[in-house]
Amino acid sequence: MHTTLEDFLKLATPGVRGLRPYQPGKPLAELARELGITDAIKLASNENPLGPSPLALAAIQAQLPELTRYPDASGFELKQKLAQHHALTPDRITLGNGSNDILEMLAQAFLTAEQGAVFDQNGFAVYALATQARGAIAQVSTSLPATAAMPYGHDVERMLALITAQTRLLFIANPNNPTGTWLGQAALKHLLDHCPPQVIVVLDEAYAEYVDAPDYPQTRPWLDIYPNLVITRTFSKAYGLAGLRLGYALSHPALANILNRIRQPFNANSLALAAAAAVLDDTAYLQRSIEANRAAKQQWQTALAQLGLMALPSQTNFLCVQVTRNAAEVYQSLLREGIIVRPVGPGLPQFLRISMGLPAENDRAIQALQKVLA
Ligand SMILES: *Cc1c(COP(=O)(O)O)cnc(C)c1O
Q1: pLDDT over 90 for what percent of the chain?
Q2: 206 lines ligand 1 (CB under 6 A)
Q3: Phi and psi (nearest 5°) for 189?
Q4: What whole-number distance in Å separates Cα of residue 124 and Cα of residue 23?
Q5: What is the C-alpha separation between 234 and 46, in angstroms, rounded?
Q6: How many other C-beta atoms can be found within 10 angstroms of the C-beta atom of residue 265?
Q7: Is the CB of 247 under 6 A from ligand 1?
Q8: CA distance 174 to 133
Q9: Close Cβ partners of 281 (under 8 Å, ≥ 6 residues apart)
């Protein structure tokens, strides 16, 4: 009889045995259940604080009577729009149930126990999880030091040096979560120029819409130069549709062909397909999102300076803030004040990741942080 977790783990694949579940930001409803706080503010999952685009909501409403039907498995209409948006052909687009789904597809397609993936120690948590789930080799690159021009940023030379004949994937979020740091055009181009052809470079641009750094690369043209480049994008952040789960990859058509073999036939649901197509047209919403984020970052940076706290450079909709003590404890104290943020974790034990909220939400969170640190 198999009854304990250990019993079942023995049956699981070696990769699954070593997995630790992804830690999401605490949902508001959970805090309400645990501490009875019903007016909490969640700045923990880098969500868009503006609420969804009215065009997206209208598209969802119009789609509701069709819910008995399966979604369009080819995502024809959305792919047409994305193809136009990025100036490429639809056969270079793969849709995912969030870009997370794309990252999993890449791991499934290219990693076994004999192969490896390179990623930064402070890279997006999903890279380590997707690699571990296949029992593949995690080739973890040490971040740049705190004293670097880009503190805790990715060390391109170190990543290149880690590549072996076994390496199949190299993951980079640009800009990166949870640090907010980024790689400029020259560093990234250098990496691509020196990556052997058997290594697929996964460039995760989940926050690209927020970026205003002048050295940030426009990578779309690079797809024509580097067939081993995959760019992932998402509707979860600046486009404000995290709850619907829709992301996509841009790649060489042959690579899209491979991902399409693995992709679950109906991985992008019909409401997500409709809403995403609609929000792509809502350039005013995107502009509002970017502007609100810029203002919120200003608000936080001013407040943090007054509190004497340092934040890492960020091109995203969150700040990675050094609280100069155990961040897990500060996180717990903030929870009791009704503020949900994220402790970054073992790699950066003194850092909290704080998503940018509405002005009043930021005010309350800043006051709580001040109180907790006093
Ligand atoms: C939020 C985020 C994603 C997006 O995930 P979805 O599955 O598209 O919601 C991908 N990569 C990074 C680095 C992120 O922070």
Answers
A1: 93
A2: yes
A3: -65, -40
A4: 12
A5: 12
A6: 9
A7: yes
A8: 23
A9: 55
Structure tokens at 59: 């598209």
Q: Among 126, 154, 234, which is best to mutate for testing ligand 1, by the most ligand atoms less than 8 A from CB?
A: 234
Q: Please, what is the angle between helix 99-110 and helix 253-262, to 10°?
A: 90
State the pTM of this model: 0.96
Instruction: Give the pairing of strands 351-355 and 318-322.
Output: antiparallel
Distance CA 262, CA 106 (A): 9
CA distance 101 to 109: 12
Is 117 in contact with 107 (CB distance < 8 Å)?
yes
Inter-residue contact 230 to 202 (CB < 8 Å): yes
| Separate counts of helices (H) and strands (E) for the chain | 14, 13
Nearest to 325, CA basis, from 358, 300, 295, 350:
350
Instruction: Show the DSSP H helices in 87-228 as ranges.
Output: 99-110, 125-133, 156-162, 185-194
Nearby residues of 367 by Cβ (< 8 Å), 6 or more positions away: none
Residue 331 burial (C-beta neighbours within 10 Å; 0-12, 13-18, 19+): buried
Residues 15 and 17: their CA atoms lie apart, in Å, by 5
Ligand 1 centroid to Cα of residue 172, in Å, is: 12
How far apart, in whole angstroms, are the C-alpha atoms of residue 71 and residue 66? 9
Nearest to 125 by CA among 344, 352, 361: 344
The 10s digit of each residue's pLDDT in 121-174 is 999 999 999 999 999 999 999 999 999 999 999 999 999 999 999 999 999 999
Record the tokens describing residue 56, joined without a space. 């997206």
Q: Which residues pair with 232 in a beta bridge?
A: 204, 249
